[in-house]
UniProtKB/TrEMBL annotation:
Keyword Zinc-finger: no
UniProt name for this protein: Signal recognition particle 14 kDa protein
Family: Belongs to the SRP14 family.
GO molecular function, one term: endoplasmic reticulum signal peptide binding
Primary localisation category: cytoplasm
Amino acid sequence: MLTRRVQQHCDGAPGERAVPDGADQALPEESVVGSTDITLKKYDGRTKPAPRKGSMEGVEPSDNTCLLRAMDGKKKISTVVSSKEVNTFQMAYLNLLRANMEGLKERQKEQ
């Protein structure tokens, strides 16, 4: 449900999801105790480890991409975002975070 709501706010093509399919399970609508860990790193498109010795002849440089992983302790989801889709992804991600930040407490002002 959250991915549908986020998809409505995106400027992406119809049918494309800006956030992974499992994002609504990793960040549920109802408040629960726990946390979600999100990591972000540069991704070069390799699915196998680089060889220890030898040259890198078979590896072609790919478009700048970013690997995003989310984990809540039991479930893991991940997606790869290309440099062309970064703005769309960030807007969808921002809307997803705003929708799930209802349990935060306000800071006490110091006098």
